[in-house]
What does this fold into?
Amino acid sequence: MILRLYLFILYLTALISAGLAAEIVININPYQSPFWVIAIFYAALFLFFTSIFGLVFFYLKVWASNREVIFAHLLPTLRQSVFISLGIVGILFLQQIRVLNWWVAALFILSVFLIELFFRGRKQIKY
It folds into this structure.
């Protein structure tokens, strides 16, 4: 039952954040809007990408593991989708402030990848 609740929250987050991001893109002029509107746009985009990647990767992992230990795939998948979303939104932000080129993007993606490797290689503390 809890797994269904988490998946429902991911679906709902994807729907609401996609609507908010589309509303901002359609109705807001980015050259005249204050900083907080742009921050809300990036937050909505981050939540949208996190929930979409989380859902897609969760169902791919469940399919690949032949439906064994389904609940164990949720937290690592959410962590990985957060890092992928951070990479995408970070690159979009760097493009907005006009500092993005290929080596900055490569270093940014490499740093996000190394953070993921840190969390993957970390030993779990058992109490």
